[in-house]
Design a protein that fits this description.
single chain, alpha/beta, Quinone Oxidoreductase, Chain A, domain 1, 8 helices
Length: 326
C-alpha cells in the first residue's frame, strides 16, 4: 500500500523566465509505483527554449515530454531526466534505483513499465545523463560513423561531449572537438579526442556533428565536411530562424545535411530497437567515471526557481545542471 504522502513539489515554468515550485497531490493509477527523486538533470538546451516560451506552435504536441503537465507555452511542468528510489511498488522494484523520463518533482507516481533500473555500478547523479546519452547514441546511429572515420563535433556541451566519447571509442577513429571555449580542450582529451579552434578544422571529415544551436556553429560544421560527407544536425533551435550556408562549395562537395532527433529511433536500428532497449543501452554506456566531469552544477531543489535562471541564461559556463533532492 502506498505510504501517506502530504504533497509533492513540482517545478513549473509559469511565464517567460519564471520558475515556481508548486505543491500538488500525487497522481497515478492502480498499477503505479511511487518514486522519491534523488537527482534530476536539466536538459539545458531544450529547457532553456521551454523557459523562454520558444517552442513553436507546430511542435507543441511532438515536443511534449512523456509525463509533462500543462501545455506550451505556459504554464508547463517539463523535464525528462530523473533518478530516484522506488518506495512503493512490486516487490522486485522495492528500494531499487530507477531512471524515469519524468519532470522535476520530489516524489512522483508512474507505471512500473515507465522506469528503467539503474545498473549498480552507476551512481545516481551520473545516471541522470541517460536521456542525453540516448540522444548522442541515436545521433551516432543516424550518422553511420564507423571505425577509422574522421569525425568532427562542433559544440562542446553535454551532448557534444557525449558524442565525443562515443565516437572516440570507435576503433581507429580520428575525432576532433571544436568549441568557442578553449577550456573544453581538457575534456576533449579526457574523452580521447583532439581539440581545435574553428579556424583550425580542415574540410576532410567523413562525419560532422553539430550541437551548438548557433548559425556560426552550423557554418563551421558545413565547412568541415569532406566530399559527400554527412553533416548531422543535433541542435534544436525552437522558434528561432537559422541561416544555412548552402552556397559556395556546398553542392560541389555533395554534402548531406540531416536532422537527428531522439523522439524516433534511428531508421537503421528501428526494426529491432524499441525505445526501452535504447534507453537501457544508454544507461549502461554511462558506466564510465569520466562522465562525472560533465556535472558542473548541483542546485538544491528548493532553490531551483532562484538559481536556475542565471545558469540557464548562459552567463555562467555550465554543462550538466542537476537538481538535488533532500
Amino acid at each position: 500500500m502506498t505510504p501517506p504522502y502530504p504533497l509533492s513539489r513540482q517545478l513549473w515554468c509559469t511565464a517567460p523566465g519564471r520558475y515556481e515550485l508548486i505543491p500538488a497531490e500525487l497522481e497515478g493509477g492502480a498499477d503505479s509505483i511511487t518514486v522519491r527523486a534523488i537527482a534530476s538533470a536539466v536538459s539545458r538546451g531544450t529547457e532553456s527554449l521551454v523557459l523562454k516560451g520558444e517552442v513553436p506552435q507546430s511542435e507543441h504536441q511532438r515536443m511534449r515530454a512523456p509525463f509533462q503537465r500543462g501545455d506550451f507555452p505556459f504554464p508547463v511542468q517539463y523535464g525528462y531526466q530523473s533518478v530516484g528510489r522506488v518506495e512503493d511498488g512490486p516487490a522486485e522494484l522495492q528500494g531499487r534505483l530507477v531512471f524515469a523520463l519524468h519532470p522535476h518533482q520530489d516524489v512522483f507516481r508512474l507505471p512500473a513499465s515507465a522506469v528503467v533500473e539503474v545498473p549498480a555500478r552507476i551512481p545516481p547523479r551520473r545516471a541522470t545523463l541517460a536521456a542525453n546519452m540516448e540522444t548522442a547514441l541515436n545521433a551516432v546511429w543516424d550518422s553511420g560513423a564507423g571505425p577509422g572515420d574522421r569525425i568532427v563535433i562542433v559544440g562542446g556541451g553535454v551532448i557534444g561531449l557525449l558524442l565525443t566519447a562515443l565516437c572516440a571509442g570507435l576503433p581507429g577513429a580520428e575525432v576532433t572537438l571544436t568549441d568557442l571555449r578553449p577550456e573544453r580542450a581538457t575534456l576533449a582529451e579526457a574523452f580521447g579526442a583532439r581539440f581545435a579552434q574553428a579556424d583550425e578544422v580542415d574540410d576532410q571529415a567523413d562525419v560532422v556533428f553539430h550541437t551548438s544551436a548557433s548559425a556560426g556553429g552550423l557554418r563551421t560544421a558545413l565547412a568541415a565536411g569532406g566530399f559527400e560527407a554527412r553533416i548531422v544536425e543535433v541542435s534544436w533551435y525552437g522558434s528561432r530562424s537559422t541561416p544555412v550556408a548552402l552556397g559556395e562549395s556546398f553542392h560541389s562537395r555533395r554534402l548531406q545535411l540531416i536532422g537527428s532527433q531522439v523522439g524516433a529511433v534511428s531508421p537503421s536500428r528501428r526494426p529491432r530497437w524499441p525505445h526501452a532497449r535504447r534507453l537501457g543501452k544508454a544507461l549502461s554506456l554511462l558506466d564510465d567515471a569520466r562522465f562525472d566531469r560533465l556535472i558542473t552544477h548541483v542546485v538544491p531543489f528548493s532553490e531551483a526557481p532562484a538559481q536556475l535562471l542565471g545558469l540557464m541564461s548562459g552567463g555562467e559556463d555550465a554543462l550538466a545542471i542537476l537538481l538535488d533532492y533532500p
